[in-house]
């Protein structure tokens, strides 16, 4: 009973802060279901270039021919009804370059979420997506003058067709998996980022993804290209209203770090508990490049996400630092993949998960070292914390090492919230609830300290919200 | 009621049951403000169990009465006892990765006093306590007991005690793992808190700390009972003769270490 109470109080909190919705006022919307006619409609709305139309239709054929994956949470995956989803909802005809140009409801939504304020305070650029389209976009003048490109993906395709054609779908081809194929067929929105050689974007660019409408799928597509010796930090956040029926979020994110470039990609997702979040994220790191995925997964009903780095150039470095918090009725199936395909490449995976109530957190990871990738080093650390007797954690690590001269370290720990830690804090006068929160915050501290301060504060607050009353 | 009006800590016929084993079998204890009581006894006699029970260890079943400043507290949560002035210095202080000592202490003070100290005031006091106990200041921003040596942990317990200013301090083998210099520093901290009228219960194996902190009373716990209470000279006698002569008629709690 306490569990049920906790669950409803959480839902109330989320409803108030993020779970609100406005009446749908779309200017275009495809009927439920998915077929070639729907895909053609989406492309037509976007007045899209021919090769992209062909790409979409081919991807749809791939999607239709691929079965649902046989691994992961079968109960939820098999229950997805692809015919009961709107694949494209266009919220407005115009994209704003200032918030004043954004329709009132949409502007209010992002104000409630604190986006314009964050933009004023500490961001270099902001992209805000509402259902299927980017409705607001801006970037600091200085970056524009430096030749930095930060656009919605649709605009990127229109304004830089050659660059997009050269890279789009090269890191994650539609044939990669069923959900990548789905995204490739119906994608809309997302970000296109290009950073010129030796250019540093010192403050983060942020994209915020908001689902507003019921029974919809959001399929944003992001491509980030960091040219030689450049550096960029991109942050994404996401929330959605609470609906009785499931919403589908299936993004594809491709990163390309050229020679000596550094990309950090930070995600703080906080989906409502009716969202299925099935995302493919992959990066290619060339010689001496660094790619870091900093991935915070809160909320959603099911998340399946395994950020990946292909280390294709010598001395490239890949990193995944992730936290997943699985509350009641949630399954966080997350992890990382590192593919060492060049000599002296290095990688590090630090994965932390917390399961509370009847939540389930799974770590699924792959480290592969190809033959010839001599001198590469990898370090994998999985740490799971169980809060309640009913919480669950699983680990599915895979190592495929085809080269002898490699250094592989793997550590995995599952711990229960320790009674002696709680007693210690309590004996200092700290109440049990707060003591639990302290231990949990301490547990994810190595993750939180990697975030910009504003996000660190926000994440701690979200964790507190999730933990509130979770004590049986 | 029979408790002394001015006692800061009193227990009456205290029994502690852990996993169906009665570890403490009827202990009476009265500590007045500013008094230092030493609690000695062989391994497994129940010393740690006793102080943990007094502090409200959640895994124990407790019978009898515990009075703190004239209030019964045996049914209170550990944090509530702490708010009423109880402090437990642990034998094995546990590490809490990701939580710094200063964050924990600031949170604890806020919970106890109901409001946060101004950061500048708090930092000043904390700095003073660190230098008082000869602990490098950078330990304040390290994680609690994480990667500390045994001696560092014990000094940190004394430091926390000084910061929290309890009415009663239960110190569980605070002297173990300390070299002679550290022992003197810790002892002077304990002496200081006693002079501030805090009652102290000092659990120890050895008489060596008692050369630096003068106890008013020395109790000997054997098999979960206090079998002898006397003046400071008793500690010396125990050092000479050991505990065996006190034990024959009272069997030890079977197979239980200092829990």
Could you name the key traits of this structure?
heterodimer; A: alpha/beta; ten-stranded mixed sheet; 28% helix; B: 259 residues; alpha/beta; Rossmann fold; 7 helices; 27% strand; disordered C terminus
Task: Describe the protein in words.
- The complex is a heterodimer of chains A (472) and B (259).
- Chain A has one domain.
- With 472 residues, chain A is of the alpha/beta class.
- In chain A, helix 2 (36-45) runs antiparallel to helix 3, helix 11 packs across helix 12 and helix 12 (432-443) packs across helix 14.
- The termini of chain A are close together.
- Chain A has 14 helices and 24 strands.
- Chain A is globular and about 65 Å long.
- By secondary structure, chain B is α/β, with parallel strands linked by helices.
- Chain B has helices at residues 47-55, 78-83, 101-113, 119-132, 150-164, 180-195, 233-241, and strands spanning 9-18, 21-31, 36-40, 61-68, 71-72, 86-89, 96-100, 143-144, 168-172, 199-203, 217-222, 225-230.
- Chain B has a domain at 9-93 and 165-246: 3-Layer(aba) Sandwich (Rossmann fold), CATH 3.40.50.300.
- Chain B has seven helices and twelve strands.
- In chain B, the strands form three sheets. Chain B has a six-stranded mixed beta sheet, with helices on both faces. In chain B, strands 2-1-4-5 form a four-stranded antiparallel beta sheet, with helices on one face. Chain B has a two-stranded antiparallel ribbon with strand order 7-8.
- Chain B starts with 8 loop residues before the first strand and ends in an 18-residue tail after the last helix.
- The chains are: A alpha/beta (472), B alpha/beta (259).
- The interface between A and B is medium-sized, with 25 and 32 residues.
């Amino acid at each position: 009973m306490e569990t049920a109470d906790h669950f409803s109080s959480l839902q109330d909190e989320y409803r108030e802060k993020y779970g609100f919705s406005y009446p749908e006022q779309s200017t275009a919307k495809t009927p439920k279901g998915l077929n070639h006619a729907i895909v053609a409609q989406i492309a037509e709305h976007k007045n899209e270039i021919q090769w992209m139309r062909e790409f979409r239709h081919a991807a749809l054929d791939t999607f239709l021919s691929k079965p649902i994956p046989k691994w992961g949470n079968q109960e939820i995956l098999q229950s997805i009804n692809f015919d009961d989803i709107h694949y494209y909802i266009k919220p407005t005809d115009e994209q704003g370059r200032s918030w004043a140009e954004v329709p009132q409801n949409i502007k209010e939504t992002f104000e409630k979420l604190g986006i314009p304020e964050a933009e004023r305070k500490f961001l270099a650029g902001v992209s805000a997506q509402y259902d299927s389209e980017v409705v607001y976009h801006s970037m600091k003048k200085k970056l524009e003058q430096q030749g930095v490109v930060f656009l919605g993906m649709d605009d990127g395709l229109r304004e830089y067709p050659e660059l997009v054609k050269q890279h789009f779908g090269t890191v994650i081809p539609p044939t990669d998996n069923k959900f990548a194929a789905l995204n490739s067929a119906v994608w809309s929105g997302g970000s296109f980022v290009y950073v010129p050689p030796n250019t540093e974007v010192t403050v983060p660019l942020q994209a915020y993804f908001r689902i507003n409408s019921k029974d919809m799928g959001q399929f944003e597509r992001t491509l980030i290209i960091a040219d030689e010796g450049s550096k960029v930090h991109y942050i994404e956040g996401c929330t959605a209203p609470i609906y009785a029926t499931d919403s589908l979020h299936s993004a594809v994110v491709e990163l390309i770090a050229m020679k000596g470039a550094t990309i950090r990609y930070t995600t703080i997702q906080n989906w409502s508990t009716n969202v299925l979040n099935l995302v493919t994220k992959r990066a290619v790191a060339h010689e001496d490049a660094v790619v870091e995925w900093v991935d915070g997964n809160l909320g959603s009903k099911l998340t399946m996400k395994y950020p990946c780095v292909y280390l294709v150039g010598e001395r490239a470095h890949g990193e995944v630092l992730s936290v997943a918090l699985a509350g009641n009725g949630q399954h966080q199936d997350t992890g990382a993949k590192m593919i060492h395909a060049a000599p002296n490449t290095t990688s590090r995976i630090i994965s932390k998960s917390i399961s509370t109530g009847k939540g389930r957190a799974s770590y699924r990871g792959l480290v592969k070292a190809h033959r010839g990738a001599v001198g590469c080093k990898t370090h994998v650390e999985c740490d799971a914390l169980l809060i309640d007797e009913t919480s669950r954690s699983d680990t599915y690590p895979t190592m495929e090492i085809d080269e002898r001269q490699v250094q592989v370290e793997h550590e995995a720990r599952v711990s229960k919230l320790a009674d002696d830690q709680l007693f210690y804090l309590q004996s200092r006068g700290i109440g049990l609830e707060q003591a639990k929160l302290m231990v949990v915050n301490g547990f994810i501290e190595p993750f939180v300290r990697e975030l910009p301060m504003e996000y660190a504060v926000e994440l701690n607050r979200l964790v507190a919200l999730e933990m509130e009353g979770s004590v049986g | 009621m029979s408790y002394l009006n001015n006692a800061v800590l009193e227990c009456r016929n205290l029994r502690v049951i852990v996993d169906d084993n009665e570890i403490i079998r009827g202990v009476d204890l009265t500590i007045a403000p500013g008094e230092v009581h030493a609690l000695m006894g062989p391994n497994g006699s129940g010393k740690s169990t006793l102080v943990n029970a007094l502090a409200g260890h959640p895994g124990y079943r407790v019978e009898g009465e515990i009075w703190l400043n004239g209030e019964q507290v045996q049914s209170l949560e550990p944090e509530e006892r702490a708010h009423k002035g109880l402090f437990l210095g642990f034998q094995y202080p546990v590490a809490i990765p990701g939580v710094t000592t200063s964050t924990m202490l600031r949170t604890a003070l806020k919970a106890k006093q109901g409001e946060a100290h101004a950061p500048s005031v708090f930092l000043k006091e904390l700095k003073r306590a660190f230098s008082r106990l000869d602990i490098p200041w950078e330990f304040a921003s390290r994680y609690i007991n994480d990667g500390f040596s045994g001696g560092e942990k014990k000094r940190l317990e004394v430091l926390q005690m000084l910061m929290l200013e309890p009415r009663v301090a239960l110190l569980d083998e605070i002297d173990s793992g300390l070299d002679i210099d550290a022992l003197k520093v810790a002892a002077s901290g304990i002496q200081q808190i006693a002079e501030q009228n805090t009652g102290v219960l000092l659990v120890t194996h050895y008489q060596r700390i008692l050369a630096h902190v003068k106890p008013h009373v020395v109790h000997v716990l054997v098999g979960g009972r206090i079998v002898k209470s006397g003046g400071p000279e008793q500690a010396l006698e125990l050092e000479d003769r050991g505990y065996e002569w006190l034990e024959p008629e009272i069997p030890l709690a079977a197979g239980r270490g200092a829990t």
